[in-house]
Amino acid sequence: MTNENNALELHHVTRSFGDFTLQDLSLTLPTGCILGLIGENGAGKSTAIRLIMNNLHADSGEISVLGLDNQSPAFSSLKEDIGVVLDEAYFPEVLDIKQVEKVMASTYTRWDSALFTDYINRFELPWKRPFKDFSRGMKMKLAITVALSHQPKLLILDEATSGLDPIVRDEILDIFAEFTRNEHHSILISSHILSDLEKICDYVAFLHKGRLLFCEEKDQLLDSYGVMACTSDQLQELPEDAVVGVERSHYGMRVLVKRSKVSSAFPVEKATMEDIILFQVKGEKNA
Amino acid sequence: MKGLLLKDLYVLVKQMRVFLFGVLIFAVIPGSNMTIFAVVYAAMMPYTALAYDERSHWDQLAGMMPYSIKDIVLSKYVLGWLFTAGAAALSIIASILESHFIPNAGSPLSGALAFCVGVITMAITLPPMFRFGVEKGRMIFILLVVVIACGSAGLLSETVQSPSSLAILPLLELALPVAAVVLSVASVWLSIRLYAKQHR
Amino acid sequence: MEILIRNTSGQPIYEQIYTQIENQIVAGTLQPGDPLPSIRALAKDLRISVITTKRAYDELEADGFLATVAGKGSFVAEKNLELVREMHLKEIESCLQRAAELAAGCQLSNAELLEMLRILLKEDK
Question: Same structural domain for residues C52 and C90?
């Protein structure tokens, strides 16, 4: 049942907490690709990641990572092949980079010291300052360095770019894109910053209140929708099934349409990831 | 497990410098009561390490690394055993050296027995820590430590120094190590189950 | 090799890649036997999805413009003039079809449409 060509497979995974349930989540990340998991805060992205890493037990469903069932006893050692960057880096505050390196080198069998040193110098991080004195950007850079230095096949990134300024974000996204130049490398990245995901993802999955609303190829998604600014009269001219969502203002309206259902006579502009998501969540359909 | 131990050592040596120095002092001060305190305080190191882990949410990161729950729990025990063995060894050496100058400086035996007491202390106090976390487990922990420390300090100095209770000594020599091993095995087993339940 | 992705046109990205590579092959800028960048390298360099470049390459291969050698990569295929002609004929047909649809849409008669074509052809000469 598990396809060896997939870096990650989730089948009907469900997990309830008191006031929140992650429902029936099924996702596939093919090897060599980048899957972006979008969702607002609290949508279930971090829960999904903890379930994948077996830090949390699912109520039902199966998860396999790099071809191995995550309930198998060998899964602990498989984590050698998975690099994780969490929302908060969680290194002990009093350690400095040199000490973090020693700890990690003793943890992972394929630790590459030269690569680690390379990245630390490239990021210009201080070797001897305690971790608690780092800015958010520096903390994330260290976490990313650690994740990459044990030569993983799969990177799992939970909000790894939030709280970073745009220049640093771009630098880091480049590094992630570089990682997948190798066809055996895959990335699962969760974020609520849509523009980041739009840049590097091959697939996008949208989680909303614990449910997966869609999982599609990013370019196909962007190609199939368009945005039109129009008056309410023009709106009437559009075929019923072409309109996905409408945003009204005092001066007119913006409409998200399916390109295939709208003739090219209409001036349809390119839709961004943000348009597609926001219209689906907020926009009311015109009766 | 080496990585986990290394991390704890780095943190403790940096943060608990004064405390560890105190343990050192207790270890070398003559008298078997002091030995007990040194060893039991050394046995508090796993608890301290857990407290620092909690503060930096280390368990989240540890769960992502190639460590099993067994590794994570056992590393705290190994940490404690190393510190208590160190304190005990120090006081044994000290007592041997000092007994040249001071009578009743304590015997190597009391050092060894103290080590067992330290191990037993850990065996009893760690499972509540793994189950309830540092905040809630703190009260239980302090209570247990005080009871064990004072109780065994009194018992030990009585037994070693008064000739009339020499009869009890062989019993203790046998009972304590056995208890230490048995309780430790049970404790590790229990802690692993409690931690797994708590963190998954 | 130059490939420019434009966001302003409504044309899907894989189509833009397809068209630009096809044009370069037909024009002779890319010669038979020339190596093409790997799907992955192209994707990363253009900052687009690997799936999109793969789709473009798959279609180019299906239409005979390039060939993939396992382990070595993709190369421009031997130019099959017959094939190219056939492709262009297909394209003319679809353009004319489109013109016919538009004409019907604004109620242009067949005669008027043919007249437009005649004028255009005369202008070309």
Answer: no
Record: contact C50-A33, CB cut-off 8 A = yes
Q: Do C50 and A226 touch (CB under 8 A)?
A: no
What's the gap in Å between the CA of A106 and the closest CA on chain C? 34
Contacts of B90-93 with C-beta under 8 Å, sequence gap 24+, read B90/B24, B90/B27, B90/B28, B90/B38, B91/B26, B91/B27, B91/B28, B91/B34, B91/B35, B91/B38, B91/B39
- What domain range includes position B108? 2-199
The pTM assigned to this predicted structure is 0.83
Q: Do the chains contact at B6 and A106, CB–CB below 8 Å? A: yes
C39 found inside a domain:
yes
CATH number, domain with residue C67: 1.10.10.10
Is B13 within 8 Å of chain A by CB?
A: no
Chains B and C: 3 or more CB pairs within 8 Å of each other? no
Query: Do C119 and C87 lie in a common domain?
Result: yes
Residues of chain B with Cβ-Cβ distance to A65 below 8 Å are none
ipTM over 0.85: no
Model pLDDT for residues A207-259, shown as the tens digit of each residue: 988 999 889 999 888 888 888 888 878 888 788 788 888 888 888 888 888 88
**Tokens (6 digits) for A69:** 């069932």
Tokens of A200: 């590097």
Asked if C7 reaches chain A (Cβ–Cβ under 8 Å), the answer is: yes
pLDDT by residue (tens digit) across B23-52?
Answer: 888 888 877 677 888 888 888 899 999 999
pLDDT per residue as tens digits for the range A133-185 = 998 889 999 999 999 999 999 999 998 888 788 888 888 899 999 999 999 99
Q: How many domains does the structure of chain B reveal?
A: 1
Residues of C whose CB is below 8 A from A215: none
Question: Is residue C6, in this structure, part of any structural domain at all?
Answer: no
